[in-house]
Amino acid sequence: MSFIAIDLDGTLLNDQNEISEENIKAIQYAEDRGFEVVISTGRAYFDVQAICEKAGIAPFVIGTNGATIHSKNKTCVSSVTLTKDCVETIIQWLDERNYYYEVFTDKAIYTLKKGREHFYNEIQRLKRADLDADMKELVEVAERQFDQFGYVLVENYYDILKQEEEFYNILVCSFDKKELEEARSQFKKFDELMVVSSADHNIEITSKRASKGMALEKLACLMNKSLDQAMAIGDSNNDLSMFQKVTYSVAMGNAKDVIKAACTTTTLKNNENGVAQAIYRYMDNFVIQK
To answer: Could you identify which of 55, 142, 214, 231 might form a hypothetical disulfide with 248, taking C-beta atoms 3.0 to 4.6 angstroms apart as the criterion?
Structure first.
């Protein structure tokens, strides 16, 4: 038995935020042959669970960029949190500079009402503008972000800090590259933090002890299994850590060249059932190696 770790956005999900029938069948095909499928994403577990239930699948889930691991029976088997003091330091800095941010906990995704309205209006303004293809795609990705399950809108960041919940991840968004780079540089100074990105308009902040790669390695250890024959499929910077832990890494056809260069091979785009193609090709290679 081995693992197949699959990113969600831009990978398993198509541009309608759905898992295609072809990808579902490929996952079931792999599971029927004893392979463990793991969804590995920056999304919160409760959001992933809603997506999986709709698709009729029940995989292991690595959520919030490796901060959480949930078993097939929905039990949290591992979590790596940010301290409340650390969260306060981060969101106070972001709030003072009017960044749009979302705070992920074990119960909800918290964001400021005024910040969400401003970011939504910015998306709508950009949609009306004359954009190049890359920027148009980025705006569409940002808009699909609002389809996530579990948002709670609050008036100010103090309302977030009052929550007696586990804090896992902070997502920061901006279409201003200079502004985003300033935030990235600010939080990379913190030894206890990991800063990655899942798209060109965001950064994602977790504990230094949390990444998709570390979580996949931890899951294998918990199950007393090896990653020697494991495969990982993804499209973004936050997938690099899991690519480094597996033998067979696959970049989506829609991934940037730097991601493709870091992988063993490339598959079709997310709108072309690239995950299904990667799984079937992997299964054939695995059988040959056996």
So the answer is: 231
